[in-house]
Specification:
rod-shaped
Amino acid sequence: MPTYEYLCAKCGHEMEAFQSMNDAALRQCPACKKSTLKRQVGGGAGLIFKGSGFYITDYKKKSGTPDAKPASKSPETKPAVATAAK
């Protein structure tokens, strides 16, 4: 069930109400008892995972570890070893 934000046009009282989507909007302000309460348009809350399943660091790159194996370069040639004639 969503949480709705309300604002009284008469006294400026702000409140939140936990209501079903099928419930009618509240009209009476609990502070001044006037019928000037208006439901505010809210942006909603972000997605929240609760429990032991997901953490923000689960898929984060660990610092100090390389991303992947470096691309292999062409095999280095060893310098020719000159053998001294005896």
